[in-house]
Amino acid sequence: MKVLQKKRTVKYTLNDIPLEQESGRRHLPVVMCLLVFLFILVLAAATSLNGALNKWQHLNGQKKITIEIIQDEKKPVDLNKITQLLPKIKGIASFEIISNDKVLLLLKPWLSDTNNIKDLKLPILIDVNLDQKDTFNTAEAERLLKEITPSVRLESHAKWQQNITTLTSSVRIISYSVMGFILLAILIIVSVTTRASLNIHKSTIDTLRLMGARNRYISSYFQNSSFYLCLKGGILGLLLALPTIAFF
Q1: DSSP string across 14-50
Q2: Please, are residues 208 and 5 in contact by the beta-carbon 8 Å criterion?
Q3: 177, 171 in Cβ contact below 8 A?
Q4: Burial class (CB in 10 A: 0-12, 13-18, 19+), 37
Q5: Where are the alpha helices (DSSP H) in the chain?
Q6: What is the per-residue pLDDT across 197-234, written as a single tens digit (0 to 9) for each?
Q7: DSSP label at 231?
Q8: b (16+ CB within 10 A) / e for 186-221
Q9: Is the model's pTM score more than 0.70?
Q10: Which residues contact 236 (CB under 8 A, 6 or more apart)?
Q11: How do residues 58-112 score in pLDDT, each as one tens digit?
């Protein structure tokens, strides 16, 4: 009769490995906090830029021009003739004469005190909305307006809107690139820290292998330790980033 001998299983534990005493692991939550903080700030900036870009693209869809008329005391501008001519020009849907108060409001960001220029002859600005379905000939419109007053100039909004759209797109690409570098830095830091821990405790790991511990079990212990440290730093970085974004 064969006696079945039960195999004795060796109990082993990794709780005695002093991972928390390593200088690299002690500073890992702080590093992760800073990286996550920067990542969330850049993400918020990129999201805001996306909203701004969509707004500029929407404005580009609304075709507009501005008619600027320089006032001359010797040759007063006949504004009635201009207002009668504008509806007759092909491609113009509507227009609005901007008051002096609105012009001063536009100049206020560049001039701290606009009271000194109230007595000056400010240019007459007419905001014109173009018809989306009709074509507008800028040169022909400028020629007709100059027959009434030679000191007229047409400025298309599409030029500076296109420049702003290009600038916003470039900044958005840079933001996404920075986010990618931050994620890459996080992966490299975690990998290097884990690899360093494995090298430091190599003798302990060899002993555990002789006792029957498998590589998957050993590696999972180091991975879980790195995960919890990164999670701790990431949550702290998130808690710091949210009020910062709300403040700005």
Answers
A1: STTS-GGG-HHHHHHHHHHHHHHHHHHHHHHHHHHHH
A2: no
A3: no
A4: buried
A5: 23-61, 79-85, 100-107, 138-148, 157-200, 202-210, 215-247
A6: 777 777 777 777 777 777 777 777 777 778 888 888 99
A7: H
A8: beebbeebbeebeebbeeebeebeeeebeeeebeeb
A9: no
A10: 29, 33, 36
A11: 665 557 788 888 877 677 777 888 888 888 888 888 888 888 778 777 777 776 6
From 138, 158, 156, 157, select the one nearest 146 (Cα to Cα). 138
Quote the CA–CA distance of 100 and 104 in Å, as a whole number: 6
* Gap between the Cα atoms of 160 and 109, Å rounded: 18
Residue in this structure with the two tokens 């010797």, named with its chain if needed: 74
Residue 140, CA atoms < 13 Å, CB-side half-sphere: 10
CB-based contact 80:137 (threshold 8 Å):
no
The closest alpha carbon to 66, from 33, 102, 40, 35, belongs to 102
Contacts of 148 (CB under 8 A, 6+ apart): 78, 81, 82, 85
